[in-house]
Amino acid sequence: NQLSVSMATLSQTQAEISWTDNVDGGAASFDLEYGASGFTPGTGTTFASITNNPYTITGLSENTAYDVYVTANCSDGSSSEASSALSFTTLCSDQDAEYTMDFSTMTVSSDGLSQENCWIAYGDVVWEVAATTDTSSGSTGPGSGVSDGNYMLFEATVAGATGGETGYLISPHIDL
After folding, report:
1. Sequential DSSP letters for the chain
2. What sign has the CA pseudo-torsion 38, 1, 115, 132?
3. Which residues does residue 45 pair with via DSSP β-bridges, in sequence order?
4. What angle is formed at CA 120 by the lines to CA 59 and CA 138, rounded to 5 degrees?
5. How far is CA 125 from CA 13, 32, 111, 120, 148, in A?
């Protein structure tokens, strides 16, 4: 595809979308279409003939998954194919300063957390929601009887790891 779309910034009700036009000569303008994650292109909300890049979509709902497509409009009246979908989830509402999380409502999985209950994980390594004394690699994690509930496990034994890998775990925004 000749358009690559990325997230510039994200908030609870806004998403700033940017794109790179790889077409020779560039496009005269762009159409941006978005909707609830999984929507069928042609049925979403469209902003036509955009000339500013990045573009901010406003009025989004908190903690909601969306897909975005961008199409280039050439000066000869033709249009490109739509970009691949950019999928994102808006941030959750602010939590009170007395917020607690014991991870008991999280899905226990060694596949790794990406986003659940307003927690976001990303990076080179995997953040797992683990239960009791479960660990993915030997000689790590809690000992028998140390933990009796769910917890977050940073699994750093990644095939092909060379050192310096990163993993980020981001809590919901807490209003202090």
Report:
1. --EEEEEEEE-SS-EEEEEEE-STT--SEEEEEEEETTPPTTSSEEEEEE-SSSEEE-SPPTT-EEEEEEEEE-TTS-BPPPPPPEEEEPPPPPEETT----STTSPPBTT--SEETTEEEEESSEEEEEETT--SSTT-SPPTTT--SEEEEEE---TT--S---EEEEPPPEE-
2. positive
3. 34
4. 170
5. 29, 33, 11, 13, 25
Q: Give dist(CA 79, CA 2) in Å, integer.
A: 11
How far is the CA of 160 from the CAs of 113, 156, 163, 165, 168, in angstroms? 20, 11, 9, 10, 19
Residues 172 and 100: their CA atoms lie apart, in Å, by 11
Query: What's this model's pTM, rounded to 2 decimal places?
Result: 0.67
pLDDT digits (tens, 9 = 90+) for 23-77: 667 788 999 999 999 999 999 999 999 999 999 999 999 989 999 999 998 888 8
Question: How far apart, in whole angstroms, are the C-alpha atoms of residue 2 and residue 54?
Answer: 17
Q: What is the CA radius of gyration of the chain?
A: 21
Contact 68, 88 (CB under 8 A): yes
